[in-house]
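Progress narrative, Year 2. Work on DUF1328 domain-containing protein from Bradyrhizobium barranii advanced from sequence curation to structure prediction during this period.
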Amino acid sequence: MSAIFRILFIVAGAITALFVARDALNFTIIQTFVAVLLVTAIVGVGSFWSQRRKT
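Result:
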């Protein structure tokens, strides 16, 4: 489980670094927000994928 979170935060850090400087005070907050958005997107894609396969 921790490996999944590490990979997720690596991807979220790379995406966040495109928009916010790494030495900004709120970088970790925005990185966590991006990670939550990524999890939501992955769950959403997974649910729509399973819905599509049923029909």
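The chain is about 85% helix and 0% strand. The mean pLDDT is 91.
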